[in-house]
Here is the input.
Amino acid sequence: MSTPPFVALPAGVTAHRWPVRGTERAVLTAGFVDTGFVDGGDWVLLIPGFTGSKEDFIAVLPGLAQAGYGVVAYDQLGQHESAGTGRAEDYSLELLAADIGELVASVGERFGTTARPHLVGHSLGGLVCQAAVAGGVVRPSALVLLCSGPGALPAERWQGLPDLVAALENTDLATIWRITRAMEQAEDVAPPPPAVAAFLERRWHANDPAQLRAFAELLMSQPSITERLRPMIDDVPVTVMWGAADDAWPISVQQAMADDLGADSVELPGVGHSPNSQDPELLVDALLRAWAR
Here is the structure.
């Protein structure tokens, strides 16, 4: 999971709850108010990955806002502060992609903009972005696939996903959390600051178990989206971006996806699967450079 460097909201970042698909999504925004943002201005929608949340981007939001962008990050259905439904069918990739369309419409209504968004999808969030664009839900101004792939993770990169799916059938989240933490302690994994550690535990317990299981299964079974995506990005600049030490989709797979899409590829030095939390300043700089191109 991504571990944010801090969890207190920075100045200029505001929390909201917006209706989407009959429920509510927890949202963070920055850059739209008191910054001179006007209709037609550039804005960014950030989509988190598996076991993540909008807070994965908490250190990225201020930097993009300072660069003149309106920015939105949200919890997907059943993540953290976005209530879940408990029904596996509600977590299909197509429905998660359709949520992006509703969020884009909400931004237009609330902040008075008709501009197309820059989409940034991290990990599983990248699959959701691809499905939204491939399905015609949204036509972005630019698309960044961050530490993501064309479809399911290769089996050798599933790590604990099959065990998690099995455990979710008859084990509560509190027990899974205790087991996971005990394993980390045995491996001498350095704990985060106390406030961040408390947040991670709260976030885990707030997840809808149906969402965790559906997302894990998606990461092990989703067919490649590349063929459906390619004809929808003729005039959309696409960047595939990864950390040099990314341990999810192999870098070779991400580079091949970039080649198949005719996209730019960017490797970020000194970071792994979560550049948004490991080195947010590096990521902001890379995003701004990608969009400038």
